Amino acid sequence: FIHGGLCIGYSGQCYISAIYENSAANRGVCRTPCWENYTLYRNEIPINSGKLLKPKDMYGIHHIPQLCANGYAALKIQGRTRNLNYIRNVISTYRKYIDKPIYIDSDELSFDDFQVLSAQSSRGLMRGNLELLVNNNFVVDDVCAQIPKSEYIEKYELE
User: Fold this and answer.
1) Mean pLDDT in the chain?
2) What is the mean pLDDT of residues 60-67?
3) Distance between CA 80 and CA 62 in Å, rounded?
4) Given phi > 0 = left and psi -120 to 50 = alpha, else beta, which region is 11?
């Protein structure tokens, strides 16, 4: 899987939709309850709220040279639930880099190509699970409201 929407569940093993919506994600009918607003608590004190489980879309275009060099013959791009513009724009961008697999770092991926990929995602893009380092930017973090630390420390100390 090289590009598209990620699931907060590991390898499609999410059961939130099946439990709360009677609609199993493993059968292709996820109702995306992970995109709802949630509040994170520590010791019964709210410390963060918002769309805490809503993941960004993954883009792995930087890994095409390595994947091609290692003999991968197919790359999966999300498309089943996407419109034709999404499919055309994303696939044509990836095709360009597959046909010319040069090393791609953030400076070598053309700004125009990145803009094409970015325009297809309302949730934002992240480099995904193909990275060696832990990706701390997995969820859509700009819609989450971190509750000021002083608020929950004061409340905790009062108890």
Assistant:
1) 76
2) 85
3) 23
4) left
